[in-house]
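Is magnesium ion placement plausible here? Inputs below.
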Amino acid sequence: MSWKFLRCLQNAKFLKKNLQTSLFVHRCASVQYVPDTISAAHGETTRMNLVQAVNNALDIALSTDPSAVLFGEDVAFGGVFRCSVELKDRYGRDRVFNTPLSEQGIVAFGIGVATMGSTAIAEIQFADYIFPAFDQITNEAAKFDIGQEIYLISPEAFFAHIPGIKVVIPRGPHQAKGLLLSCIRDQNPCIFFEPKILYRSAIEEVPSGDYTIPLGQAEVLLEGDDVTLIGYGTQVHVLREVANMAEEKFNVSCEVIDLRTILPWDEETVINSVKKTGRCIISHEAPITMGVAAEIAATIQDECFLNLEAPVMRICGYDTPFPHAFEAFYLPDKWRCLEAVKKIVNYG
Amino acid sequence: MLSTVGRALRNSSTPKTLFVGTRCASTEATFEVAQCKLHKLEQGPATTVTCTREDALKYYRQMQTIRRMETTAGNLYKSKQIRGFCHLYSGQEACCVGMENSITPEDSVITAYRAHGWAYIRGISVHGVLAELIGKKTGCAQGKGGSMHMYAKNFYGGNGIVGAQVPLGAGIAFTQKYLNNGNICITLYGDGAANQGQVYEAFNIAMLWKLPCIFVCENNGYGMGTSVERASYSTDYYTRGDYMPGLRVDGMDVLAVKEATRFAKDYVLKNGPLLIECATYRYSGHSMSDPGTSYRTREEIQEVRQTRDPITSFKQKLLETNLVTEDEMKKIDQDVRKEVTESEKLAIADTGPPLEDMYDHIYVQPEADFKVRTCDPVTMVASR
Ligand SMILES: Cc1ncc(C[n+]2csc(CCOP(=O)(O)OP(=O)(O)O)c2C)c(N)n1
Ligand SMILES: [Mg+2]
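Reply from A.M.:
I modeled the complex. Tokens:
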């Protein structure tokens, strides 16, 4: 999910030229986005990309909660990714404002605001820049019983290790709006990661009104009998494609689960699925060691040991620092995941 | 922004920067430079600077090379040969050239991500910089670092997190003091970075332990799209060390910067840290994705180019004093163009790092059998 991984998708062409490995260009072919189906109960819908959905959620949050304030670096001008465009004009500079370049200050200031009962929506430009504020999130936010919402653009495992925080990653515009509103209205500090690659590439109908999607609940996107595929954010789309390919090529039926909330995660949905299929592959872009997949795998072996037909597999990013020239090779792409499906059904 | 640099200069005595006298027209000349604004200092850098012909030619060449290299990098980015981040130094050349020429290769430098000019002046070739930007094995970080991660001997990069390099600089200076080797560390950060808390933690430590560190705030008027006035309660960055003495120098005048750095090096070795604010200007946008014109006017950029450009103004001074002839400078321009063009061609033709390199550089001197997991947990590969 880190922006670094995501950039590589945009760079597929460049790689073709420079590395002359058509295989990898193929591997990096961008995500096939499958739009959500919206229930008729939601009424009117609007076509939106993820940026617009986030903007819309922030708009609703500010209009329904007079105590809500939105701030961060360049937020009043619309933010570097344009998620907060026009909000300053609509709600005034007292509620939507720029901060100096000071991440620890931004988060800590937000905690102070939230402690007084207001809703603080703090934006951190890129996930990489959240770390100066790590201490405030771990030692202050997580230990206050407050609703604060930090929304930013990437890595999750670090934060999933902090009891008292909620960590959420949407797979598209419809989910983003509902989950972001849930985060803003939750009584606990939430970190909302936005998959940058989907900002403009994921477009779908989004309910125009005010709605929330519950936190801590995974969603079964595809039902299947042979293998459970678990992911979140952009990787969900990779897994969906893998499921289709597995069906076509190997006649294997995969169940695809979008975790949606990383902490606290929905053990029940996962366990029920694995009990049914007996096989499980977990996939994320972040490095494999000590990643979210490790935690899920441990729980599965604990709860589903006797149902398992094969060891749980993890298809994740490499355990290497991020190398400038090799962006593309980082990805646990559909080919790697498909290979894993083949292995897991032929285990033993 | 003009207001800042403009104000910075208005506050100083008028920069005459005029020919004062030449002892021998062909070997050296003395120049008057603007007086620095001082904070908690009784005496500041001299207002006259003597410069030899050779030095003048050298500074001119160094600034031109950086300018040309950055223009080339910008074009390579536009033609999609360079991807990812790319922050250009154009407009700020006098800062790194002036400073480097008052320190020795044994002194240290650490800066943020606007590092190409510094990498070059600290000893990386134009080819090493350009190849790194394009992601080639011959790049100064073997193509694995890119724009923000360039290093050389006694040059510690190249840091992407705004402000994070400042405490590191204090640590480097601590070692120099501990070794008592007479060297110093120049620790650079931007006007935007000046609002990060850790900068002030570093100031306190450096003052407490009297570290030989010159903290340099390269004030180019903007932190991304935010002008200094909108980001800082006090834009007098040279005073923001509070108890730390400071000075503001005209960062567009290579000789002024050189003299201020000479003064500062001498000062920090005797007394402990000093803060220099270098009043300069960034011509390009923040990075290549920023056209750099939505938060400032084109006229503003044009005016700096016309009235305060570090290269043009230096050239003028050299001509006025007859220290260097127009032809000599033209010759340098041609040489520089040739060098950069050749480096560019070479860099484009070079090959990228082999795939196995991806697994390397995780640990220094890993155990002989150290392997890393790949995406697929059962495949392990050797890491060097
Ligand atoms: C901790 C952190 N926050 C935000 C950023 C994004 N960012 C990169 S450069 C920059 C502006 C810095 O401005 P300044 O310190 O003035 O340096 P300049 O770019 O002008 O050289 C910002 C906000 C970052 N790299 N690191
Ligand atoms: Mg700046």
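Short version: The interface with chain B takes residues 7, 11, 13-14, 18-19, 73-74, 77, 80, 98, 100-105, 128-129, 131-132, 288-289, 313-321, 323-327, 329-332, 336, 339-340 of chain A (CB under 8 Å).
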